[in-house]
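ZP: hey, is the magnesium ion complex queued? I don't see it on the tracker
AM: it wasn't, my bad. submitting now with these inputs:
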Amino acid sequence: MAEAAAVTSKTLMVEGLTVRRGGRPVLRDVSLALRSGSITALLGPNGAGKSSLVQTMAGVLQPEAGRVLLNGANLVGRRPEAIRAAGIATVLEGHQVLSDLSVEENFRAAGSQWPVAVLEQHVAEVFTIFHELKPKARQKAGTLSGGQQQMVALGHALMCRPAFMLVDELSLGLAPLVVQRLMGVIQEIARGGVGILLIEQFTHLALKVADAVYVLDRGAIRFQGTPAEVQANPQVLHEAYLAQ
Ligand SMILES: Nc1ncnc2c1ncn2[C@@H]1O[C@H](COP(=O)(O)OP(=O)(O)O)[C@@H](O)[C@H]1O
Ligand SMILES: [Mg+2]
């Protein structure tokens, strides 16, 4: 039952992923693990392969080798909708919302698989988390600010009751106050039991909320550890970001 997905402990493992784009390898033998209720930051410079990794985990890109294991079951080759239904929701870069639909319609569209009573409950819960969207429930999503659109995109993902959420560029182009608010929301979602993969340009903010960190650079994982370890070894990030 999907209702239980967020509270039951699950694992999402990526094993040895190799992905090519335009004939070039953009991910090479990438492995990582996510845990329920925990935030894993994926850091790395532009072009490192972060979005390619998220797209592969979401079933949008097909790997040349490797596996994506949800509780041991390999999801590679499954369609994006099937992966979503299995409990992995993705917020792609650039907060994708259905601009011509209202905020509430966006949420309803994302939860159309639920029976009506359950759908109502989930919509109400999403509005509880994103309370600032409540007065804008009937407003077209395309007319909202960037931060509010990102909230709609996160709410859209939450409507599936995911066990895991992959968030690509949480705060790109958003004002500092909004970023802080979104970080708080990510923590709240994780406290609810969801395992989160967080891609965030403000590395210091990601390190503040994360339980685990991976640094990706030119398609390969260069570091894996805790935020404290990254803070104690700043060269880990400097080398990845300066190598560009
Ligand atoms: N649609 C695409 N077609 C071909 N190559 C792409 C495409 N999108 C990204 N790439 C390449 O894949 C590599 C990784 O990009 P990406 O996954 O977007 O990295 P990041 O999200 O870390 O910035 C880059 O070299 C980029 O140029
Ligand atoms: Mg990207």
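AM: back. The radius of gyration is 17 Å.
ZP: great, adding it to the tracker
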